[in-house]
Amino acid sequence: MPGPVPNRTEDLSRARDAHKGGRMDATKGTSRPATIPDPDSDWHKSVRMFWDSVLESGQVDFYESSDYAKLYLLCDLYSKALAMTKLPAILIQTIFGQMEGLLITEGDRRRVRIELEKAGSEEDPVVEEQMDTYFKGLHLVPELAA
Fold first, then answer.
1. Model pTM score
2. What is the distance between the alpha carbons of residues 59 and 109, in angstroms, rounded to a whole number?
3. 112 DSSP assignment
4. 5: which of 67, 109, 112, 143 is 20 to 30 A away, CA to CA?
5. 40: alpha, beta or left? (left if phi > 0; alpha if psi -120 to 50)
6. Using an 8 Å Cβ cutoff, are 24 and 41 in contact?
7. For the CA atoms of 76, 80, 81, 86, what is the dihedral angle to 10 degrees?
8. Cβ proximity of 10 and 43 under 8 Å
9. 3-state secondary structure of 29
10. For position 72, what pLDDT does the model report?
11. The predicted structure's pLDDT at residue 56
């Protein structure tokens, strides 16, 4: 989805903002067990580091076998590109453009409305206590009798 990176859901002021701009609800399908290929031992060390980091990242919870195949293909191509004496800029641009579809960066994921939560990311108890104190201090204005 082109355009600016949408805000995270919790940053939206109203629930209706989640459907702003005509965003449709997701179409559902059945997930199947994915096959993860082994990385090529001849890959460039930067490509191998990239491969490992993707497999450790949260977006792989959504990957299917075809996503892993695409990741493998892009890593293979990227490794071969890095071995070239003259690296064509259009090739790197194409590889990086194809990586967007694998939801590798936070911006890529937010564009398709996938948000990864940090493990154990609960509200700060101090902030919760301060907010409770604040809300208790608010006084409601009674409705005027008609």
1. 0.65
2. 8
3. T
4. 67
5. beta
6. no
7. 180
8. no
9. coil
10. 97
11. 93
- 117-126 burial, b at 16+ Cβ within 10 Å, e below that, comes to eeeeeeeeee
The Cα–Cα gap between 59 and 47 comes to: 18
The backbone torsions φ and ψ at residue 23, rounded to the nearest 5 degrees and listed phi first, read: -65, 130
C-beta separation of 87 from 78 below 8 A: no
Say whether 25 sits in a helix, a strand or coil: coil
Asked if 63 and 104 count as a contact pair (C-beta separation under 8 A), the reply is: no
Listing DSSP states for 15-83 in one string gives GGGGGGGGPPPPPP----PPP-PPPPTTS-HHHHHHHHHHHHSGGGGG--HHHHHHHHHHHHHHHHHHT
* Residues contacting 76, CB < 8 A, separation 6+: 40, 43
For residue 97, what is the enclosing H or E element? helix 89-100
Q: What sign does the dihedral 9-14-16-20 (CA atoms) show?
A: negative
Closest by CA position to 112, among listed 16, 53, 25 = 25
pLDDT in tens, 74-123: 999 999 999 999 988 999 899 988 988 898 888 888 888 788 877 765 66
CA 146 to chain centre: 53
Which residue do the tokens 């409601």 mark?
140
What is the spatial distance between Cα 127 and Cα 124, in angstroms, rounded to a whole number? 5
